[in-house]
Amino acid sequence: MRRFALLLALSVIALLAAGCGATSEAASPAATSGFAGTPLGGTPAPPFALHDDRGRPVTLASLRGDYVLVTFLYTHCPDVCPLIATNLGVVLRRLPADRRNVRAVAISVDPKGDTRASVRAFVRSHRLPKTFLYAIGTRAQLQRVWKAYGIAAEKGPENTVNHSAYTVLIDPHGKEQVLYDAQVKPAQVLHDLRVLA
Fold it and tell me: Which pLDDT does position 178 carry in this prediction?
């Protein structure tokens, strides 16, 4: 059921992005919900247990009480991943002083290429704040998370990875609230965090 709802939301995003959806703003699920992204209805987010580049655990359970932006990236991505990471980094830096309970977690879609060293270099080169976590693991560990979140990831040409690229905003109770496509903008996320507050 969860996968169906997520695929339906992604289909709506794809149709709207392609210009095939309704042109009326009132017809958009986001417009009727007050969210800038696509509302997900508050279903429980799938748990995950991975680690960061220093071997420290990164789990959804340990982030309970925070808003969490979960996305799926890889460090050698030539195009969309750096853009998503940069935009989420902007969100984390622009939070008002009373709203510091927001974290971003990038989950690797490249278990072979996302080494501890490449993750450190990626985080450094994109100037990501400490509240941006990059979770890595073995292929088996990551595949379980990909499956739970409906992520497709497969090897592409010349060490690239073809993968689903979206971000899910999870509330402090571990519920999925909003979905963003690969074009996620800082203003959208900041707006939706205000709506949820």
Answer: 98
Residue 60: half-sphere exposure toward Cβ, Cα within 13 Å = 22
Measuring CA to CA, which residue among 193, 190, 197, 171 is closest to residue 43?
171
The 10s digit of each residue's pLDDT in 156-172 is 998 899 999 999 999 99
| Tens-place pLDDT, residues 110-143 | 999 999 999 999 999 999 999 999 999 999 999 9
Q: Tell me which residue of 35, 17, 20 sits closest to 176, measured CA to CA.
A: 35
Q: How far apart (Å, rounded) are the C-alpha atoms in residues 114 and 190?
A: 29
CA proximity to 8, closest of 185, 189, 172, 179: 179
User: Which domains, and CATH codes, for the chain?
Assistant: 2-196 (3.40.30.10)
* Amino acid letter, 116: R
Separation of alpha carbons 146 and 131, rounded Å: 22
Residue whose token pair is 């979905």 = 179
From the centroid of its chain, how far is CA 20? 25
Chain center to CA of 18: 21
